[in-house]
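input
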Amino acid sequence: MGVLDDALVITGMGCVTPLGIGVARYWEELLAGSCGIGPITRFDASKLPVRIAAEIRDFDPESYFEKSVVRGTSLFMQFGLVAAKEALAMSGLEPASSPERVGIVFGTALSAIAEISQTGQHYLESKTKKIQPHFIPSVCNNMGAAQASILFGIKGPSLTVQTACSAGGDAIMVAVMLIRSHLCDAVLVLGGDSLDCDIAISSLAQAKALSRANETPEKASRPFDALRDGFVVGEGGGALVLETARSALSRSAKPLAYLAGCGNTCDGYHITAPHPEGEGAARCMRHALAMAGIEPSAIGYINAHGTSTVLGDIAETKAVKRVFGEHVPPMSSTKGATGHLLGAGGITEVIACVQSIRAGMLPPTINYEVPDPECDLDYIPVQARKASITYAMSNALGFGGQNSSVIVKRYESAEWRLCLFACVGDIFFEHMLRENPRLLAWVYRVLNDILWRKGWSSHMM
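output
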């Protein structure tokens, strides 16, 4: 395979977040230090100890889909599918032109828990004990990917990843594996979650995982701050179009960033608590760095998992120190603004990394006001910061000790021209293969050496 089959690029992005719908709105509000957290409005939370969440407000699925689609999909699917529509439009990818070569990976933490809870309550209160026939298809975990396949005409591999709060990042890694296995040329990666239901809020509240700052919701999520008292449940959707450089070049698409590396590990420690020294998360970051073929010093920004829990923020801080030593790059958590978007967050936070590289701005950790001696890094407090960076890393960590890290790299037009040269060379060399294999091998060695010096080694993605 040629150089262009080794390089993976992001050509489209989409998101639905508590800050707004669409990448432009999301990014604008992140940089402004806005907060999407407020009182719960979707159900009566008056008797719960936690009455705040980061909801998607003013969301009308019928403005995006036919009524039949809305009836057959849960809210978490709808968030992901709306994000997917934006990502595909931005990318310009038309799956119908080669449907068997495009795949789907959907990441979700708790899928249709809200709809299951509501339907169960309706059944208990119903005299007829009848449930509408669309219930089972609308809550099956794989149906988000299935609906995307139907809506967008995608007929390649279709997988659902459910690895708690790292599901979005893990979905990206599964997409990489599909492309690397030559099963796809492009993959639509999407994630969605809606955890806005009373039984979930009650369970997490009793576990003392959630912030109880009901009177000041805009201050409730305060990652790495000494006054933090738990995370704030959020909801939303995120999507990326990931493809080989060859696929993108073949239709004159302009990449937004390179997907440089990713990693996945498990702590093997506890079902909810992270390893206290961040051992598993540190290994995960090292795996991603190794896949990207770069040293830790190359990373210019980290979008931290940073949920605003006491144990989690300390463990992640220790993990970052284990990997980066005395040269930790600026790091922020955007969950102060969005709350914890669960499976969607692993994708929306990668989008924040891509935007940071493209815009030369790093989003802040809002509500970081009182330093914690055990969280003593540069968390970009309160205000966005100008910075020119080449690589950014996103961490997503989840229950069960799940760890995900994704690294993205700046797109350079000069490198893209080099890629085009490589593409033409690939085609030309294929014709020469039978005539002069030794010459072909020599030219490939020279070309790969050039790409290595440009940061495009064969280990790059």
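quick obs: The chain has two domains: 3-410, 417-453.
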